[in-house]
Amino acid sequence: MSGLVLKLSPRERVLINGAVIENGDRRSRLAIVSPNVNILRLRDAIHPEEVNTPVRRVCYLMQLVLSGDMTAEAARPQLMRGIEQLSQALTDADSRNRLAMATDAVLDGAHYQALRALRSLLPREARLLAGVLP
Q: Which of 23, 35, 41, 90 is 20 to 30 A from 130 (CA-CA)?
């Protein structure tokens, strides 16, 4: 079976193609077999007031695409510009690899995979900013 598998905790909410779906009282597992489905776990969502770092800005843009608040076509130039700017700051091999994965995913229209690649940079960004900021 190919596609995305969502493992949901009790009462966990997920946004699928603009509809908020809440899990029941038990853990569950959903297999998303349709291609090009926009999915966002609401527990992973970045709220507008939390968009205060470069990686969070790019993640938030991708999140807007997944939530249906912005079209992929409108977001693509901003996403590509943001990823390029991140690649100038995050120069280690692992970060470059994740940014390349995000770039490929954006170009392929694989928005969830792009968000996953970008979100993986959040801990690294936090460590870097903690070392720079007082």
A: 41
Instruction: Give the tens place of pLDDT for each residue, 86-115.
Output: 999 898 999 999 999 999 999 998 888 899
2: three-class secondary structure by DSSP: coil
**Residue 107 shares a structural domain with residue 87:** yes
The dihedrals phi and psi of 14, each to the nearest 5 degrees, come to -140, 145
Closest CA to 10 of 34, 29, 32: 29
Q: Which domain holds residue 22?
A: 4-43
pTM of the entire predicted model:
0.84
Q: Does the structure show a pLDDT above 70 at 130?
A: yes
